[in-house]
Predict the structure.
Amino acid sequence: MSRGARYLQIAEDIRNQIESSVLMPGQPLPTVRELAREYGVTTQTVAKATRHLADAGFIETKHGAGSRVTGEGRLVHPFSRRSNTIVALVHAELLMSETSHGALANQWFDASLNAITRVAGSLEMKTQVLGFGVQSREPSRHIVEAIDRAMGVLVLGDPPRTFHAMLKAAKVPVCFFNRPVPNELADHAVSVRAGAQRFGELVDYVLSLGHRTILYVWDTDPDYGNAEVIFRRSILRSRMLEWRCDPERDQIDLDISSHSRSNDIAGAVLDYVRSGCTAAVCYNDESAIRMYRILHYVGVQIPEEMSVVGFDGIPSGELLFPPLSTVSIDMVRVAQEAIRSLQLIAENLPYHPDILIPGELTIRRSATVPDSRPRK
């Protein structure tokens, strides 16, 4: 067993047993207490080792059910080329403590970056975070040099086209979070995003309650791009058609992003409520939380007068009153799939160009059946 922290030694030993097929996919591991006795350590040390293996995708652990070897393809460890650093290329605004989106946008960013760092660390990789501005004509020399040395690049946001050209020239493996792969990078890039299925289920849930006139709400600055906004809008439209609604009449688009005027938005929302709109399906939780603020400002009760649902599962959603119904995304799994894809590209192994993470429909108390009484 190699040198290093004891929990890392235990994790490496178990990983070697998995890779040599001593432990087979689906096979349960011994209990934490049994492993503690076997290795002569505390249960806390074993728990840390199994958490390390779970982060790297070798095992999965369920509370009360123990751990078992995963049956899925596991992370390659580590790259055989370049350095052991992953560059996270992020919209510069998300790196600032005060942004036009406030702390809400940073919750998704922080969850993503923490998951990337955690999974990368479990594979003894480093993470370097670099910011890009949407007005940047050319990538800085610092960014070009960092990416030229990197084992792979994870992109959060929509960098300018000049960055696409730089990534193509560097021939570095690239993964886009919640964004489609640009055509010019199709030969060495993947997309990892929340699957459309759960957003469709979220819409079905709202329609099943009896809502028929629905606001589609987003709070995404144009600088971030709107490909995913448009994609989810199309899902809402198709689901409404399946429920025999008329999207042309009953689906209302509402942009509440920071470039829109607050007074105009508040007035428009109140008019929509008075004219019979009973639900807001929001692009993400950030949009839903701002919608809460607008509805509170104009005196509309949630969910009695307007049901609201979101998407992403950021921590603030559960703390709202009423708690927000949403689709929760496992960011550690997103990071695992992203890093594994970068590794497969680097090793010239087959990879899937568009990976969908299903998420989990989380029903709380922000949506209910519509009030049939006349609106004032």
Residues 86 and 127 are 5 Å apart (CA to CA). DSSP finds 13 helices and 14 strands in the chain. The radius of gyration is 23 Å. Confidence is low (pLDDT under 50) at residues 76-81, 97-102.
